[in-house]
Amino acid sequence: MEYYLSKNHLSKGSDNYIGRTLTIGIINKTDLIHEIAKEGTGITSYEVESIFKRLEVILPDLLQKGYSINTPLVNFSPSLRGVFNNWDDSFDSKRHSLLFKTSSGVILKRAAKETKLYKCDSRSYTIDIFSFTNHNKTPGTDILSPGSIGELRGNHLKLDESDPRQGIFLLAEDGTEYRIDVYAHNTISKQLFQIPTELNAGKYILELRSLPTHSSQLKKGRLDTPLWVL
User: Fold this and answer.
1) Distance of CA 159 to the CA centre of its chain
2) Where in the chain is the domain with CATH 4.10.520.10?
3) pLDDT tier for residue 74 given thresholds of 50, 70 and 90
4) SS3 letters for the chain?
5) How far apart are CA 189 and CA 50, in angstroms?
6) What's the maximum distance between 2 C-alpha atoms anywhere in the chain?
7) How many CB atoms lie within 10 A of CB 120?
8) The DUF4469 domain covers which part of the protein (predicted)?
9) Considering only CA atoms, which of 112, 204, 188 is closest in space to residue 153?
């Protein structure tokens, strides 16, 4: 996991910094279900979806009854916010609020301790991929058509095509990486490229890798949503 340092503006008169982590994408509920029910696990997406739906009913109900919930992944507990004027004061929704707080369970705490951190040169150089467009007879923002033209829009997209470490990569679910070989437009805010013809049907993650000038740390940025070859 990458992190960068940012000036601590809350600490006046001192030259100290705070650390901030960089995320490479967002996993939503649908993506998580797909990950849990991957081929070979013996678990179906329907089963995972059913468990999620049940949890979405049971967890709020137990918390509303006043329970705290402790699991190896995450802990939940009710909490009140607001100041009570004296002993006789009571809950007033205009001045007080009930919150359900979360905290890491033992598994996430252990994962945090075991995570390797790599310092970035600067937050100012973050690869942001805003959108993908498939230029084909069946255009779309989540479809890959082998052999057709793909387009990326974003920030810090320019890369060195001659450097094998850099490029646009399509990551298959089985771990295979497909590097883009043909680029028609290679600038900071836009990429036009030919989608590889050898892609098999399935889900792919698009990742752009580049090496900033005067930096030895390879930067990576991912499209937030997965792409599919039908």
Assistant:
1) 22
2) 2-119
3) very high
4) CEEEEEECCCCCCCCCEEEEEECCCCCCHHHHHHHHCCCCCCCCHHHHHHHHHHHHHHHHHHHHCCCCEECCCEEEEEEEECCCCCCCCCCCCCCCEEEEEEEECHHHHHHHHHCCCEECCCCCCCCEEEEEEEECCCCECCECCCCCEEEEEEECCCCCCCCCCCEEEEEECCCCEEECCCEEEECCCEEEEECCCCCCCEEEEEEEEECCCCCCCCEEEECCCCEEEC
5) 41
6) 74
7) 19
8) 143-217
9) 188
pLDDT digits (tens, 9 = 90+) for 153-174: 988 899 999 999 999 999 999 9
Structure tokens at 137: 């007879």
Q: Which of 25-29, 30-34, 79-83 has the lowest mean pLDDT?
A: 25-29
Tokens of 189: 């805010």
pLDDT in tens, 37-70: 987 889 999 999 999 999 999 999 999 999 999 9
- Which phi and psi angles does 65 have, rounded to 5°? -80, -10
Tokens at residue 97, please? 């609020």
In CATH, what is the architecture of 2-119? Answer: Irregular (4.10)
DSSP lists the bridge partners of residue 98 as: 80
Which is it for strands 219-222 and 202-210: parallel, antiparallel or unpaired? antiparallel
